[in-house]
Amino acid sequence: MNMPQTLGELRRSAFSESRLKTRRVKDELRENLMARLREGGSIFPGIVGYDDTVVPQIVNAILSRHNYILLGLRGQAKSRILRGLTTLLDAQMPYVAGCEIRDNPYEPLCRRCKLELARLGDELPIAWLSQDERYVEKLATPDVTIADLIGDIDPIKAARGGHDMGSELTVHYGLLPRANRGVFAINELPDLAGKIQVGLFNIMQEGDVQIKGYPVRLPLDVALVFSANPEDYTARGKIITPLKDRIGSEIRTHYPATVEEGTEITAQEAWVRRDGLAMHLPVYVGDVVERIAFAAREDKRIDRRSGVSQRLPISCIENVISNAERRAIRNDEKTVVPRIADVYAAIPAITGKLELEYEGELKGADVVVRELIRTAVAKTFDRYFADADLQQIVQWFDLGGEIQMAESASAAEALAGLKNIQGLFEKVKQLGVTAKDIVETQVSAAEFVLEGLHAHKRIGRSEERVFTAGEKPRKQEPVVSREDFPERGRGRRSFN
């Protein structure tokens, strides 16, 4: 389809002049959202776990034509949701070609476009914006200035064009005017300096901006959306109350409510499908990785105000696969199958995602993460073996059996030793693994059983990954008191 290239062609096309004159961005978002609701399609494709919580609140905000803010900890898909708003915009939108603020060709705002319209009339050149081009995003930082967001007077324009400094033709527009007729998003809103937050007042309430105190007013057409950490978005934080009062809806995001939702997000976002060797990712390994994040969010040694990002399991599973990939390449194996040992090898992908409290700092990040992995293994193990009788395996170790499961050991080498453990391969059948499966899968499943027993302290394991009998609880020494020896005199307390 050939799009109109001049104002005259636009008037004669299917694009309604009255519609382009009267429909604002928030009306456009509202109408397209209503159409999608009628069709029954997904509002935000790729967003998992928010269908009954966050998404309905966003829908209400858009239907109400509100500016809104997403409050949530890091790694809760806030930016992704904001960027997803572009799917609710029209596929194409006409504007005056060359205009910095994407002026409506029927009703231009800036001085230049008004002069061009008066001079060219129906020959005014037209250009087109796609959905993605109508989204402007800014990460708030303390060094952001009014000139960055709103604009400033450009003395070079004034000198080159021979204009007065107060003329609109000398204005260099900031990000907000350049988002005209689109969506403008500010991430981490409270990080803006207070005077910059004040500069957003007019555009949100009165719908215009002023630049450098000059009588330059632009009734911009913008949908404003924000994101912030809840700890900062309070009277004690860094947000100023008048700005907070002007935001229509305040919507709270959250982490996945279930391991299944978390696993779905991780599978969607992580780089799992790789070129090269064939790969099989056992379900229990994915569950362990996901449960690490869940355990960390409940751990008192980790700062809950910072949160535990969903990026933790994503980075972790990628590192787990890479470690298994490295082992397969070195041992000339044809299939990459991660083991629990690979989760421990992925600790560097976890430690950087955690903000530790004082108690955690005393222990050290590596120690805390190892304990989190052990907790995750124990919970995943219970999913498969909560009611299983594993005494035969434990007894094998109690009778002096031991085996080393180095994370770099080949599957064939590890399998030879694992077959000596009585009853072990009978139990891996509960994981859906049989003798018909490839060696790498059998070894991974068998090691998971041993790691689960170790996590429950039924067998021991050294730092060199040597599995042995667990430590037996020591018998408590009887408490000896003076009443046990009545013949002793009161003066002496020695029991020699």
Defining key terms:
alpha/beta; Rossmann fold; 2 domains; five-stranded parallel β-sheet; three-stranded antiparallel β-sheet; 23 helices; 11% strand
Describe this structure in words.
The chain has 496 residues and is an alpha/beta fold. It folds into two domains: 7-252, Rossmann fold; 259-469, no CATH class. The chain has 23 helices and 14 strands. The strands form five sheets. The protein has a five-stranded parallel β-sheet. A three-stranded antiparallel β-sheet has the order 12-14-13. It has a two-stranded antiparallel sheet with strand order 2-3. A hairpin with a 4-residue loop joins strand 13 and strand 14. Helix 13 (259-269) packs across helix 14 (283-298), helix 14 (283-298) packs across helix 19 and helix 21 (411-418) crosses helix 23. The radius of gyration is 32 Å and the shape is elongated.
- Unreliable stretches covering 5 or more consecutive residues: 485-496
Q: From the alpha-carbon coordinates, what is the Rg to the nearest angstrom?
A: 32 Å
Strand content: 5-15%
User: In CATH, what is the homologous superfamily of the largest domain?
Assistant: P-loop containing nucleotide triphosphate hydrolases
- Mind summarizing the main beta sheet? 5 strands, parallel
Mean pLDDT: 88
CATH architecture of the largest domain: 3-Layer(aba) Sandwich
Helix/strand/pairing category: alpha/beta
